[in-house]
Amino acid sequence: QVQLVESGGGLVQAGDSLRLSCAASGRTFPAYSTGWFRQVPGKEREFVAQISRNFGTTYYGDSGKGRFTISRDNAKNMVYLQMNNLKPEDTGIYYCATSFRHRTTAASEYNYWGQGTQVTVSS
Length: 123
Fold this sequence. Notes:
Elements: E1 3-7, E2 10-13, E3 18-25, E4 33-39, E5 46-51, E6 58-60, E7 68-73, E8 78-83, E9 92-99, E10 112-113, E11 117-122
């Protein structure tokens, strides 16, 4: 069993940066790859980035390439998403989630989810 809690969201202006954090509990957490998704009302969850469990290999979706950086600290059971040069289209609820599979973008492949943190980017 893994519990995930996201934090770090907020209201920012276009061009600003935010760092989201995902705190995990459960001794099996290091066994999973961890991803970030985002969702806006009326749309499906969109894959942003993922980091592998063992070597920290990263994988980004189109929405995360170039401006976002995912990282993890297994000693602290933390995963981070650094978001730079934010744009209004980055607005949404951001979720962290775990998967046994790496390089997977499908939400259905993720088994544990946090409650999400709201990011709002004003123009």
